Amino acid sequence: MSAITATLLIASAALSAADRMALDAATKAIYAPYQDEAISPPPWERDIWSREVQHLITHWQSVLPQDEPDAMNDGDWLCQCQDWDAKAFSVTITSRKAVEKDVAEVAVDLVLFKDSDPRDAFLTFRREEGRWMLDDMYTEEYADGVKTALRQTILEDEELQKARP
Fold first, then answer.
1. Cα–Cα distance between 104 and 85 in angstroms, integer?
2. Higher-confidence residue: 20 or 164?
3. DSSP string spanning 29-64?
4. Calpha distance 35→28 (Å, rounded)
5. N- to C-terminal Cα separation, the chain
6. What is the per-residue pLDDT across 24-41, written as a single tens digit (0 to 9) for each?
């Protein structure tokens, strides 16, 4: 690849100021409920996900065991926790980058409690109908991404259904 081609590819992948602002706003909106004492819906019920993830969530909910937790409903996907302090919760955007056309990654540090170490998360957004929607998330818990975890859990839950009389 020539140096000019490489430069053009990098330049075309740069985020505009408007995209950076929109991604920051989308990221802050995702985590805003964690800074509020009010009870909010679980992440899978929120209108933050790309169409592909929404489809996976719908499939997962159709096979979800009714009498026990599975790998996806035993904690909060976005904060990677079961508990947090709304007064201490903070999200810091550490980087943003374009991955490809209409796809971007935002890295964040999450602090759940006063004086706790931050947790890293890498959010992949996809622009759909002019909105940046969360298309995947990579964390220590979801090293292969939330989409991969959903797909695996769907398979496990389907096998569990087959095994039941």
1. 29
2. 20
3. HHHGGGGSSS----GGGSTTB-HHHHHHHHHHHHH-
4. 10
5. 59
6. 999 999 999 999 988 889
Give me the CATH topology for the region 15-163.
Nuclear Transport Factor 2; Chain: A, (3.10.450)
- Domain regions of the chain by residue span: 15-163
CA dist., res. 7 & res. 119, Å (int): 33
What value does the mean pLDDT of the chain take?
91
Which residues are CB-contacts of 52 (< 8 A; sequence separation ≥ 6)? 126, 135, 147
**Amino acid code (one letter) for 54:** Q
Q: 């985590």: which residue's tokens?
A: 31
Residue with tokens 């490489």: 6
* Rounded distance between C-alpha atoms, residue 165 and residue 162, angstroms: 8
**Confidence bin at 62 (pLDDT 50/70/90):** very high
Give me the pLDDT at residue 13, please.
66
Cα 23 to chain centroid distance, Å, stands at 13
